[in-house]
Design a protein that fits this description.
It contains seven helices and four strands. The protein is an alpha+beta fold.
């Protein structure tokens, strides 16, 4: 069986992803997943969630460990979703400043609403990935495993101090947190990546299969 034939055999997962809300989805060989140490390095310097959830660095598998994990698979389903969170152009610059006391009250309200909707979308994304894992399992792919974009939103405060996730069945690691360069992977998969976003941000997910 050729590689194209094998990828076609996973088309049922791609179709399910689209039915579940993905705006684009592609089956790709795992060699197209771009894993870079600098992505996690950026997490250390530019993400307020660093060290605050067990699904993110430094608790997530390192890029080196994730490369080894990925090498045990052959294919992946790479997916794009459009968030329902909306931000007008003049609001975008405030989205990373949620704790800034100088933000006007009207702007702060809109920022809080954006992140509230984003959190709901993140939960839906995680649920979709888990559902796709189960669908893959019914076809014999028992080790199908998914990852999502962004930090974990399962708990208001993660159980980091005790080092034990209280939702182990639903926790999914962040793609970026294990070193996946989502933009570069999207380009290799032939999926459009838009940044900066105009109004509705895009979010991505990855399902390792086979």
């Amino acid at each position: 069986m050729t590689q194209n034939d094998k990828m076609s055999s996973f088309d049922f997962l791609r179709k399910h992803a689209l039915e579940l809300g993905a705006t684009d989805a592609k089956i790709i060989p795992v060699e197209k997943i771009v894993i870079e140490d600098r992505v996690v390095f950026k997490c250390q310097l530019g993400c307020e969630k660093y060290g605050k959830t067990l699904a993110c660095p430094p608790y997530a598998p390192t890029p080196e460990k994730f490369r080894k994990i990925v090498s045990e698979y052959h294919y992946a389903l790479f997916m794009k979703f459009d968030s329902q969170a909306q931000a007008e152009p003049e609001l975008i610059k405030y989205l990373a400043k949620t704790e800034d006391p100088t933000i006007p009250a009207e702007i702060k309200s809109k920022v809080d609403n954006f992140w509230s909707v984003w959190k709901i979308d993140a939960q839906k994304l995680r649920d979709t990935v888990i559902q796709l894992e189960k669908i893959a399992a019914t076809k014999g792919y028992l080790l199908a495993t998914g990852l999502v974009s962004g930090s974990c939103t399962l708990c208001e405060k993660c159980n980091v101090e005790k080092g034990l996730c209280i939702h182990p069945m639903t926790k999914r690691y962040s793609e970026e947190g294990v070193g996946v360069n989502v933009k570069a992977t999207a380009e290799k998969a032939g999926i459009k990546f838009t940044l900066p976003f105009v109004k509705n941000p895009e979010t991505f997910a990855l399902l390792l299969i086979d």
